[in-house]
Structure formats: structure tokens, C-alpha cells
Amino acid sequence: MIPGKVLVAYATRYGSTKDIAEAVSKTIREMGIETDCMDINSINPENLSDYDAFFVGSPLHLGKWLPEAKEFMQFRRDILNKKPVFIFTCGITIKDKTEHILKKAEFAIYEFSEYIKIDEKGFFPGKLTVSDLNESDSQIVRLAGVGEGDFTDTVSVIIWTKDIADKYFVDE
């Protein structure tokens, strides 16, 4: 199936997930597939039926997806379950990609994976600049001892997206 149109939807707090969503969208667009890349908060739910596949992403915040991303999955599950859905999660802790870290990231999507058919999952490191954080998040980061830096791996995002396209978007 070659989709006519793909939606890359994301929730973000400080920009990492938006950057990953834009890399996904650009990769799909370069393959000749019409793609919209939108913040979850700006999506008109009435237009979701226009899409043939969905990429949905959220950062990990305190080990969970952002509320608006979880709500999008929950309240749009009737439409999402009719089409391919590819999930991506990003977070500064994912830079270490240990089995323990990846299990925690997997757990973050567990609460909606019981009612959404997820075709593929991607877990990507993000970036963290402490000076960009609000006071509450800054305190949490300091207490957790998380270091700052940009660990975004755009090459991995592009490879993941192309693998999905090869598997799901080919004309048979």
C-alpha cells in the first residue's frame, strides 16, 4: 500500500520531539508521499480520516508520555485502529539505550497500547538544555542528575522511517 497522505503528529515541551517529527516527515516527503507534520494540539480531529497512516510521538516526561499525546491516542483510537500507526518516543535518558531504559520507555506506551494497534515503535534520544526548562522541570532534572546535551540521532530516525516505508508503503 502506498499511502496517499501521512500524518506525523507530535507532542513536545522543549522541541526534541518536534525535531524528530520533522525528520520523519521530511524523510517520507522525500519518498514522494504527501505528509503533514503537526503538533497534536493543533490537529482537527474531523480531518483524521483524510490520512492513510499515522506517526505519533511524544517525549518522556517523568517516565510517561505527555497527557495530550495519551489523550490523542485514547480519544482517536477508532480512526487510528483502521490505519497503520507508528509510535516514536524521545527522551534524554534514551541516549543510553540499555535494556532497562528501553523497558521503561516501552512501559510509557503500555497504557494505550492495549487499545491501539501499534505497527512499529521507535525510541530516540533527545536533547536537554537546562536553561530552557521551566523551574519545576529544572528541579526534577537536577534531582535526577540528568546531564544536558544534544543527543539527537537524526540518522537513526531516518533509517527507522525508511525501514517502515519499505515495509508498509511499497506497492505490491
SSE topology:
Layout: E1 5-10, H1 16-30, E2 34-39, E3 53-61, E4 64-65, H2 67-75, H3 77-80, E5 85-91, H4 99-113, E6 120-125, E7 127-128, H5 135-144, E8 149-150, H6 154-168
Parallel strand pairs: 1-2, 1-3, 3-5, 5-6
Antiparallel strand pairs: 3-4, 7-8
Explained architecture:
This protein is of the alpha/beta class. It is built from 6 helices and 8 strands, in the order E-H-E-E-E-H-H-E-H-E-E-H-E-H. It has a single domain, classed as 3-Layer(aba) Sandwich (Rossmann fold). The chain is 40% helix and 23% strand. Helix 1 links the parallel strand 1 and strand 2.
Order of helices and strands: EHEEEHHEHEEHEH
- Low-pLDDT parts are none
Q: How many strands, what sense, and barrel or not for the largest sheet?
A: 6 strands, mixed
Percent strand equals 15-25%
Number of strand segments: 8
Average residue-wise pLDDT: 85
The termini sit apart by: 7 Å
How many alpha or pi helices? 6
Shape: globular
CATH topology: Rossmann fold
Indicate the structural class.
alpha/beta
Helix content: 25-40%
CATH superfamily: Flavodoxin domain
Tally of domains? 1
Estimated radius of gyration: 16 Å
